[in-house]
Request: fold
Amino acid sequence: MKILSITEQAADQVKAILAQSEDKTANAVRVGVKNAGCAGMAYTMDYVSEPVAGDDHVSEHGVEVYIDPKATLFLLGTVMDFKEDILKSEFTFENPNQKGACGCGESVMLEPADLEEIAKARAKADA
Reply:
């Protein structure tokens, strides 16, 4: 199971924000989570010039995304997308580890992935 998958729409938006960044050395983004909001956690995204030692790495659709190792178990199996409508445009995270969200959409309730369940699923798939 991949830690993070990136849609083409998300990759296109990452390319666009990197091109518009004032930090011209930034060549990737770093995704993580932090304690925040009424539901408990929020997704984070920062510019990256060099990966932090220990970061996980995903390369899809021509973009590089690094993942804070403290967020790995919370993000396992997540799909990062970018959505636009009349009122807003935003990165979204379809996360199987998300158990809830606050009403305003600023924070989410995440539980770490169950590694035993993942190992069982992999063993079953390999059989």
Observations:
- Helices lie at 8-20, 72-75, 115-126.
